[in-house]
Amino acid sequence: MHLHLPHLPHLPIPKSIAHQVHGVMKIFHHEKESEAHQIFRQQVGHQPKGLNFLPQTINPEEETVPGIEHPGSTGVIYCSDRAIANGFSYANSHEWANLGQGAPEVGPIPNALPRPESIPMPVDSLEYAPTTGVKALREAVANLYNDNYRKGKASQYTYENVCIVPGGRAGLSRVAAVVGDVYCSYQVPDYTAYDQVLSAFKRLVPVPTALDPKNKYRLDIEQTRKDIRTQGLSVIIASNPRNPTGQVIAGKELKELVSLSRESTTIILDEFYSWYIYPDSEKDFGKSISSAEYVEDVNSDAVVIIDGLTKNWRLPGWRVCWVVGPKNLVTALSQSGSFLDGGANHPMQLAAIPLLEPSLVKAEKMALQRHFKIKRDHVLKRLHALHLDVDIPPQATFYIWLNLEKLPPPLNNGLTFFEELLKEQTIVIPGIFFDINPAHRRNLFNSPCHHYVRLSFGPPIEDLDKGIDAIGRVVAAARTGGTRKMGHSYKKSLEANPADHI
After folding, report:
1. End-to-end CA distance of the chain
2. HEC string of 45-81?
3. Are residues 431 and 451 in contact, defined by beta-carbon separation less than 8 angstroms?
4. For residues 26 and 33, what is the distance between their CA atoms, to the nearest angstrom?
């Protein structure tokens, strides 16, 4: 049986209605509806874990090395890969604005010491260094902490409390490798690498705490103390100053946090931004933050500090960092370092020693704080002019945690905002990378970090202006009805668009 319907003429949809329909289509409610989110999920290591028995590979049909599983990339690595797919290369990096950069500018800044341009390489430095590091550098680190934070205290750090490591992640990995089967507390949002560490080191059972923006992402110390007793937490890991929110635990709250180490709990603090503090009072320039100030006994308080030359000295390429803690921790880190990384670069360790002289450090801190405060205030002012006010301005670090919720959809989530800025040769970091979610099972739209991006004011101010100009163009287009061009047609890979990169 056939039904013959009368032919209906094609009627054009009024433009205003078409725009409304298209707008409704772009209000995504689940990650499966969003192209930007699907690109993220297709990245090896980003699929939900524990739902099948096969390792995550680039191509499920390829022949794989048995037992190998991709841990997933950190935010900066993923964003760099996506930028490369959109034409970025290190040869043309000057044409881009990298506001995703997790490192400070490395060139000269006003009133700072001259930048190192060469290092001596004595013949002895061509040998392996000890896995705990060169003794003279360990002594210099201990002396700096005692000078800055422990004057007048009976318990002082010595070289035996310091382990030199080839980068902050190496230090974190060494520590994770020597921790037993324990419940490990972490916060959301926090540094992206914690996700991979908690995924890779299976003996750490992750226990999340969601920090509330209404409370300025403050860590509730009293609640944490209760969690230690009721949940049996043995380890607390956190960045301080806080990446990505730019907040800081200081004074009485930091003292209380350190006191938890005397309640059978190990406190691991990533203090890489300890100099990036922006005081209101002139007399406070040159001061920095460290839990070392509140440690009572350096060998019995279970406080582990990770820091290095990367951020404060603005020498990320040197890969010279350290872990400071009780002596028995350092001996364990020596053993884990012997099979994890083998130790830090020997000549670079020797070159680092004079940089830790306390009077030089004081001058460097003041120059850094003044310069980066100017940059922070400049970026906040420019964002304000774009009606992108920052809910909780940073007190520390060189990051701005920007809420996109008030922007028109689909630009109001971090992944889509990121993909649209790639078209403008600008890189930011989507907020979901700071949602420490080791199993990766949560619908990305339900993440508390979904509507955020992290902007870095680490680069030189010229690059910051270039990036904010790009943000202005994208936001202006969205606010004037240009969202119909957003949320789709993203380049999947460089190979998919070879003609664009010849």
Report:
1. 58
2. CCCCCCCCCCCCCCCCCCCCCCCCCCCCCCHHHHHHH
3. yes
4. 9
Q: Name the amino acid, one letter, at 364.
A: E
Alpha-carbon distances of 398 from 103, 110, 206, 378, rounded to whole Å? 9, 17, 27, 12
- C-alpha 471 chain-centroid distance: 21
> What is the β-pairing status of strands 321-324 and 162-165?
antiparallel
| Residue 150: both structure tokens together | 């422990």
Amino acid at 38: Q
Within the chain, what is the greatest distance between any pair of CA atoms?
Answer: 98
Cis peptide before 241 (omega within 30 of 0): yes
Handedness of CA 254, 223, 450, 442 (dihedral sign): positive
Residues 6+ apart with CB under 8 A from 322: 133, 138, 141, 162, 163, 164, 165, 171, 306, 307, 308
Bridge-based pairing of strands 321-324 and 303-308 is antiparallel
CB of 129 within 8 A of CB of 165? no
User: Using CA atoms, how far apart are residues 74 and 432, in angstroms rounded to an integer?
Assistant: 11
Could you give the CA distance from residue 121 to residue 130 in angstroms, rounded to a whole number? 17
Q: Name the E strands within 191-336.
A: 204-210, 233-239, 266-270, 303-308, 321-324
Q: What is the pLDDT along the chain (502 residues), one digit of tens a residue?
A: 444 444 434 444 344 433 443 444 356 767 777 888 888 877 766 766 554 444 444 555 555 677 677 766 677 888 999 999 999 998 888 999 999 989 999 999 999 999 999 999 999 999 999 999 999 999 999 999 999 999 999 999 999 999 999 999 999 999 999 998 999 999 999 988 887 788 788 888 989 899 999 999 999 999 999 999 999 999 999 999 999 999 999 999 999 999 999 999 999 999 999 999 999 999 999 999 999 999 999 999 999 999 999 999 999 999 999 999 999 999 999 999 999 999 999 999 999 999 999 999 999 999 999 999 999 999 999 999 999 999 999 999 999 999 999 999 999 999 999 999 999 999 999 999 999 776 566 678 889 999 999 999 999 999 999 999 999 999 999 999 888 899 998 988 755 443 343 3
Contacts of range 401-405, beta carbons closer than 8 Å, 24 or more positions apart: 401/189, 401/244, 401/245, 401/246, 401/431, 401/452, 401/454, 402/452, 402/453, 402/454, 402/455, 403/213, 403/451, 403/452, 404/451, 404/452, 404/453, 405/451
DSSP lists the bridge partners of residue 104 as: none
Tokens linked to 229: 């007793």
Report d(CA 378, CA 395) in Å as an integer.
Answer: 14
Express the helix, strand and coil content of the chain in percent, nearest 5 each: 40, 10, 45
In angstroms, rounded to a whole number, what is the distance separating the alpha carbons of residues 409 and 165? Answer: 44
How many angstroms from the chain centroid is the CA of residue 298? Answer: 28
